[in-house]
Amino acid sequence: MTVTVRYFAAARAAAGIETETLQLQKELTLAALVQQLSARGPELAKVLARCSFLCDEVAVRDLDRPLKTNQTVDVLPPFAGG
């Protein structure tokens, strides 16, 4: 299964990249993907814990939702401003 992950703002800084394409060996939920990404380091894990996510540009509230092949996951940290 192929999934593209796009990081924005603080998530991009913590990940050290803007976009990556992952080859997953099995079907994962969004929560499992976040856990896998969090294992890369404490800074990224801290940011991911506060993020919201879009799958193919649709907000995801249920992190137990299974991912689909060729899906794009956007990682959005909280934004401030007005």
Automatic annotation (TrEMBL):
<dbReference type="InterPro" id="IPR003749">
    <property type="entry name" value="ThiS/MoaD-like"/>
</dbReference>
<dbReference type="InterPro" id="IPR012675">
    <property type="entry name" value="Beta-grasp_dom_sf"/>
</dbReference>
<comment type="similarity">
    <text>Belongs to the MoaD family.</text>
</comment>
<dbReference type="Pfam" id="PF02597">
    <property type="entry name" value="ThiS"/>
</dbReference>
<dbReference type="GO" id="GO:0006777">
    <property type="term" value="P:Mo-molybdopterin cofactor biosynthetic process"/>
</dbReference>
<dbReference type="GO" id="GO:0000166">
    <property type="term" value="F:nucleotide binding"/>
</dbReference>
<dbReference type="InterPro" id="IPR016155">
    <property type="entry name" value="Mopterin_synth/thiamin_S_b"/>
</dbReference>
<dbReference type="GO" id="GO:1990133">
    <property type="term" value="C:molybdopterin adenylyltransferase complex"/>
</dbReference>
<keyword id="KW-0547">Nucleotide-binding</keyword>
<protein>
    <recommendedName>
        <fullName>Molybdopterin synthase sulfur carrier subunit</fullName>
    </recommendedName>
</protein>
<dbReference type="InterPro" id="IPR044672">
    <property type="entry name" value="MOCS2A"/>
</dbReference>
